[in-house]
Design a protein that fits this description.
By secondary structure, this protein is of the alpha/beta class. It is built from 8 helices and 18 strands. Helix 4 packs parallel to helix 5. The longest helix has 21 residues, at 112-132.
């Protein structure tokens, strides 16, 4: 009788919390080439905040879903967090296996110690995110590092500076090692062949991590096709085998899946196939990890911000520049957040503010477009995710009138470019 009472109580609890316990569905080889079929999703599969029908996705033969779960950019990270929690719960309730990926931007620094500190801080963000959703279960695939850009400084959408191969590799090795050490599972590395070859050094250490490779245009239904193959020669990277084929675990073969077919409101969805059978797939889901207290996200954790350098006198043609460090109570860099200049006089315009992340916990703030005046206010470190508490540093600087710059001629208007079919040459499935 007591066991029956406990069982009924559990059932009522699940119903009251709108949670439906479901065992994972049996793996089926419904994908092209008789492979296990998967998708990856992000905010783009939620147009107008519409939910995803994961039951329809499962009925279409999908068995795994990789969800964007975190991002180096604080604003994008908050959006990813919201959809990760929603989509992981719904997908697992529909019997699907889930994983999440972290989209990485590297720091604008060439100092090795700062690169390592930044990679560790960004790995900490992923561990906290994994802790927020309860850790790993046997319905979870490992997290993935989405590393597809080595641009470290961008202005108006144009990259001004790239990280070297050695620095990209140092950052990636540190991140992957940190996440492995904590969770006891090897993370995926997601990228595309040209980046793997041109932006990262070859290493046996990289090769031990499962590769999730993006390569479009060849259909995985043909066993003779392999992802990321040149017509002549090899893409030479850490996962290249002697016959030039890549040693991959997941192949993202298209970004042009038909959204409605898979239960999403967007017109398109990324499609993937798993390279192996059920036994190899299940091996990736082994090993539970539950967060301890230190693995859970802090709330308004005390921070110490320091003004490393600042402008004291500039002209209206210059920018006021400030370099800021922010650290946690243990002296390590903060994991998220940004900086801004706030004027003590709210009626004074504070110009255009550009923030460059030099490393985790270090920013260069450039304030331009200022009028001649004396500016009094403060530089604020802030974190909209409320992980770390705000910290302010008072500043005062003088802006004098500079010479009037020669006006630039208006550019000749160019005809609007013709629409580009970004799905041309891709598999539409």
């Amino acid at each position: 009788m007591k066991k029956l009472f406990i069982l009924l109580t559990l059932c009522l609890s699940l119903v009251s919390n709108n949670v439906v316990a479901a065992a994972p569905l049996a793996l089926v080889t419904s994908g092209p080439g008789n492979r296990i079929h998967g998708v990856d999703i992000s905010k783009w599969q939620h147009p107008y905040d519409k939910p995803i029908n994961f039951t329809r996705m499962a009925d279409a033969g999908i068995r795994f879903v990789m969800i964007k779960g975190s991002d180096s950019n604080p604003i994008a990270d908050m959006t990813a967090k919201r959809y990760l929690k929603m989509d992981r719960t719904a997908a697992q309730a529909a019997g699907l296996y889930t994983g999440f990926y972290y989209f990485a931007y590297l720091p604008d620094t060439t100092v090795k110690a700062e690169i390592i500190a930044d990679a560790k801080a960004q790995a900490q963000k992923v561990i906290w995110r994994l802790g927020e959703i309860g850790g790993y279960t046997e319905q979870d695939l490992p997290v993935a590092l989405d590393l597809e850009t080595n641009c470290v400084r961008s202005i108006s959408g144009t990259c001004q500076k790239y990280a070297s191969r050695a620095h990209v590799s140092l950052w990636a090795k540190t991140w992957l090692s940190e996440v492995t050490l904590k969770t006891k599972r090897l993370p995926f590395l997601y990228s595309y062949p040209n980046f793997l070859e041109s932006a990262k050094t070859r290493s046996k250490e990289f090769a031990k991590y499962p590769l999730w490779i993006a390569a479009y245009g060849k259909h995985p239904k043909d066993p003779a096709n392999h992802p990321g193959m040149k017509s002549v020669g090899c893409f030479v990277h850490s996962w290249t085998k002697a016959d030039c084929t890549p040693d991959y675990t997941i192949w993202q073969y298209s970004s042009c899946g038909f959204g409605v077919k898979y239960g999403v409101a967007s017109s398109r969805i990324d499609l993937n196939v798993f390279n192996g059978g059920p036994e190899a797939f299940y091996a990736l889901t082994k090993g539970n990890w539950k967060p301890s207290g230190v693995d859970l996200l802090p709330f308004n954790e005390t921070t110490t911000a320091t003004l490393i350098s600042s402008s004291s006198s500039i002209t209206t043609n210059d920018s006021a520049n400030f370099v800021v460090d922010a650290v946690r109570p243990n002296g390590t860099p903060v994991v998220t957040g940004s900086v801004r200049f706030v004027s003590a006089d709210s009626t004074i315009k504070t110009g255009v503010q550009q923030v460059i992340r030099s490393a985790s916990g270090r920013w260069t703030l450039k304030v331009s477009g200022l009028l001649a005046s004396t500016y009094v206010g403060y530089i604020e470190y802030f974190d909209e995710s409320t992980t770390h508490a705000s910290s302010v540093m008072p500043v005062m600087f003088e802006v004098t009138q500079g010479p009037t710059p020669t006006p630039k001629p208006s550019p000749t208007k160019k005809p609007a470019p013709k629409p580009v079919d970004t799905c041309a040459g891709q598999i539409r499935n």
